[in-house]
Amino acid sequence: EVQLVQSGAEVKKPGESLRISCKGSGYSFTSYWISWVRQMPGKGLEWMGRIDPSDSYTNYSPSFQGHVTISADKSISTAYLQWSSLKASDTAMYYCARRRGYMDVWGKGTTVTVSS
Amino acid sequence: QSALTQPASVSGSPGQSITISCTGTSSDVGGYNYVSWYQQHPGKAPKLMIYDVSNRPSGVSNRFSGSKSGNTASLTISGLQAEDEADYYCSSYTSSSTLKVFGGGTKLTVL
């Protein structure tokens, strides 16, 4: 079964760093890009950026460029989304999804809560 | 404000058909056949329902169909069922630096 398994919920304080993960299984991880999508509480979907796991080439939405870093470790079929200094406004659900264009397989999401 | 415009809500009775619109520009919806639609039930991850304007992934009911005219894409659900009640999002490739945009989402209520 093709699936993306995301890391568990996180509760952090403003200014802390964080890395969440997305592990692919059931397919060739390096054959499909991985995207990250944010959903703030009660709001819609926002595309953040994506990575080609075969060479770690990335694209970012201008709205998120410089605020997050997307990376991947193809040896363990895992993509990452990380922050160096969290803000309260980063509180959201974060989904990873497969494919460069349309997103056909989604992880269940990782809830990130940032509160002092 | 989302890059693609969707109605905030639509509703229909079981068995009826409904259409959700998704309006963009010639830089996204109108310029490329890369529109996709996603269904999201409360507390769940989005699910791909339509890709490349009108293609259905394996396993998605043929009650779901997609189309496009000019800068507006549409998702039609025929034979509405209670399980179709969910939020629906359109998405498109865009030639702007954003690369990919979503609509604001449409809440479908099955009366």
Average pLDDT confidence of chain B is 96
Overall, the morphology of chain B is globular
Q: What would you report as the Rg of chain A, rounded to the nearest angstrom? A: 13 Å
| Oligomeric state of the chains in view | heterodimer
- Amount of beta strand of chain B: 35-45%
Walk me through the structure.
The complex is a heterodimer of chains A (about 120) and B (about 110). Chain A has about 120 residues and is mainly β. Chain A contains no helices and ten strands. Chain A has strands spanning about 5, 10, 20-25, 35-40, 45-50, 55-60, 70-75, 80-85, 90-100, 110-115. Chain B is mainly beta and about 110 residues long. In chain B, a hairpin with a 6-residue loop joins strand 3 (about 35-40) and strand 4. The chains are: A mainly beta (about 120), B mainly beta (about 110). The interface of A and B includes residues 35, 59, 106 and 108 of A.
What labels describe this entry?
heterodimer; A: 116 residues; mainly beta; 4-stranded antiparallel β-sheet; 10 strands; B: 111 residues; 3-stranded antiparallel β-sheet; 9 strands; globular
